[in-house]
Amino acid sequence: MASEDVNTSESAVSTIVNLAEEAKLTKEGVKAPSHAVLSICKSLVAGGVAGGVSRTAVAPLERLKILLQVQNPHNIKYNGTVQGLKYIWRTEGFRGLFKGNGTNCARIVPNSAVKFFSYEQASKGILYLYQQQTGDDEAELTPLLRLGAGACAGIIAMSATYPMDMVRGRLTVQTEKSPYQYRGMVHALSTVLREEGPRALYRGWLPSVIGVVPYVGLNFAVYESLKDWLVKSRPFGIVDNSELTVTTRLACGAVAGTIGQTVAYPLDVVRRRMQMVGWKDASSVITGDGGGKAPLEYSGMIDAFRKTVRHEGVGALYKGLVPNSVKVVPSIAIAFVTYEKVKDLLGVEFRISD
Known about the structure:
Layout: H1 2-27, H2 33-57, H3 59-70, H4 81-97, H5 101-134, H6 143-173, H7 185-196, H8 205-233, H9 246-276, H10 282-287, H11 301-312, H12 321-346
Helix pairs in contact: 2-5, 2-12, 3-4, 3-12, 5-6, 6-7, 6-8, 8-9, 9-11, 9-12
């Protein structure tokens, strides 16, 4: 009987100790697994919404950029941003301006979700290692470390959604006069798999990986560094109470996007051209009416660079840069601001600048 009382007492003490430990952890802000999962889901949703909103807002410019990148130099259809948009409107109507946007959003929503979430996690991991190395628990991410975190996020997101980007490029360049039509993303994916094999879905992946490092890396590094500088320096009196306005955040995003895309743009042109290789009707689709066909064959990234420069000059590596610049400024800016605002609405505590 006494033994039972002792066991009961020990059990009670153990229960009280466990409850005290749980209360202590809760007080210290340790989140339950379900709360952590919910936070991850909210972060992914915020990133997805940011990607969908920003890309749809600039869909006409995105399509024109791709058309300029891959068009046959012997049969020019698009001579510039304004003329190109007018030509698409005249020949294909309003829907032509948004052709491929559904597929693009199907790609960019998960891509953006993974990219922002990956950046957050990479930033946390890199910051932890940096603080351990320096022995300074108050250390903050440097611009170079942010560049590394952004590069990791870009590579992960791009690789995860690359097949959709590949078929999106083909869907985007189609016109009503094209000799062969992909009916949609699923049809394009199945057709490429059947006619060209699984490797075709990752054609152009290498220049994409190389290009995404400076592009996404610089986007995050410049955006976060600009924000930090503005909050700490408070130039021109544009920052009140250490809080940036939406307009200031948009400006930071615009600067970040412009720098990133200018550095990485030649690789984007090569990637897009490599994605057309193996498509038997690519030349006809690009020219729009089948005239002035030119073979689109590259043995690899270096070969694509060499042939593009030899046949069309160095300027060809920047085809479509103007509409892309016009597109990138609002696109990146809208993406960053939308992401932070959606996270605020969802009540997510962690920000990309933490």
